[in-house]
């Protein structure tokens, strides 16, 4: 029932003229900041039980403990055995739980997601790195509220510092993504990963409605496959991975499913592709 109400609310805000003022207000950073204050407070604990039940979350995958706030619950750590890391160096692993789509980046560094067109230069805030991904691959991993909201590094290597791009906080549900180019309008952070097996990869974390904080643990440093990179606080969120041409092979059926508006279910640390040529 809650999910149905949310869908109706999003349709009103994003598919009607009357909903435009409400949309303008709800996507402003101060609204997300206020929501974050509540989710950090002890008052929000009472939301946990109903949230677990309505989203069918298997709490057996997590260590049993008491939570100080809803955000304390939402950013909980999973038992390591519940998300084993694929250690094959030729395997590309998912950085998170979620729903994955795959896109080919055209010669002008543009790709389309549900009728919205994205230029990589805009996605990374005008950085000159955009040209490096011509004819490459873009993976979009959407985290639903029911998903585990921590994410990891996809390979061994080195990372740059974190680059934050301030913006709005549109929801990332498909109904909204069809109406707004949210991945270049929302607040986001990106970093460049110099990986051992997949070359130079850019990873972008995109915030969403009521996600006040993208919490990355490290600045420039050595990284390890499966090591936790960071987490999102409350709400749905998205991770975008950009790969250069000829570095990764994603199964064709994933691209085909994406064209049919279907997403592949993925898990943190599980295989989603292969090193090119392997």
How do the helices and strands follow one another from N- to C-terminus? HHHHHEEEEHEEEEHHEEEEEEEHEE
Class from helix and strand fractions: alpha+beta
Mean pLDDT: 82
- Provide the helix percentage: 10-25%
Beta-strand share of residues: 25-35%
Dominant shape: globular
Return residue spans where pLDDT drops below 50 for at least 5 consecutive residues: 1-14
- Major sheet size, sense and barrel closure: 9 strands, antiparallel
Give the number of DSSP strands. 17
Distance between the termini: 46 Å
Radius of gyration: 18 Å
- Count, helices: 9
Describe this structure in words.
The protein has 278 residues and is of the alpha+beta class. The protein contains 9 helices and 17 strands. The protein has helices spanning 2-15, 20-26, 29-39, 48-54, 70-74, 120-123, 174-177, 182-185, 252-259; strands at residues 91-93, 98-104, 110-113, 116-119, 137-143, 150-152, 157-159, 163-165, 188-195, 199-206, 214-216, 221-223, 228-232, 237-243, 248-249, 264-266, 271-275. Strands 2, 5, 7, 8, 9, 10, 12, 14 and 16 form a 9-stranded antiparallel β-sheet that branches. A hairpin with a 3-residue loop joins strand 9 (188-195) and strand 10 (199-206). Residues 1-14 have low confidence and may be disordered.
């Amino acid at each position: 029932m809650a999910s149905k109400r949310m869908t109706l609310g999003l349709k009103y805000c994003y598919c009607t003229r009357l909903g435009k003022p409400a949309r303008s207000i709800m996507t402003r950073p101060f609204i997300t900041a206020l929501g974050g204050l509540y989710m950090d407070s002890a008052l929000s604990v009472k939301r946990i039980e109903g949230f677990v039940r309505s989203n069918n979350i298997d709490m057996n995958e997590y260590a049993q403990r008491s939570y100080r706030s809803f955000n304390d619950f939402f950013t909980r750590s999973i038992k390591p055995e519940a998300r084993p890391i694929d250690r094959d160096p030729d395997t590309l692993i998912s950085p998170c739980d979620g729903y994955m789509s795959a896109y080919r980046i055209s010669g002008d560094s543009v790709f389309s997601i549900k009728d919205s067109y994205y230029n990589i230069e805009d996605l990374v805030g005008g950085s000159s790195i955009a040209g490096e991904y011509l004819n490459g691959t873009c993976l979009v991993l959407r985290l639903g509220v029911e998903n585990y909201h921590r994410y990891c590094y996809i390979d061994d290597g080195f990372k740059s510092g974190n680059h934050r791009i301030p913006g709005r906080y549109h929801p990332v549900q498909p109904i909204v993504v069809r109406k707004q180019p949210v991945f270049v309008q929302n607040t986001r952070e990106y970093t460049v990963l110099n990986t051992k097996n997949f070359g130079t990869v850019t990873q972008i974390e995109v915030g969403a409605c009521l996600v006040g904080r993208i919490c990355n643990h490290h600045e420039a440093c050595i990284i390890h496959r499966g090591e936790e990179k960071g987490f999102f606080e409350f709400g749905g969120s998205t991770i975008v991975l950009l790969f250069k041409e000829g570095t990764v092979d994603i199964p064709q059926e994933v691209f085909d499913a994406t064209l049919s508006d279907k997403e592949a279910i993925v898990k943190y640390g599980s295989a989603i592709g292969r090193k090119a040529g392997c």
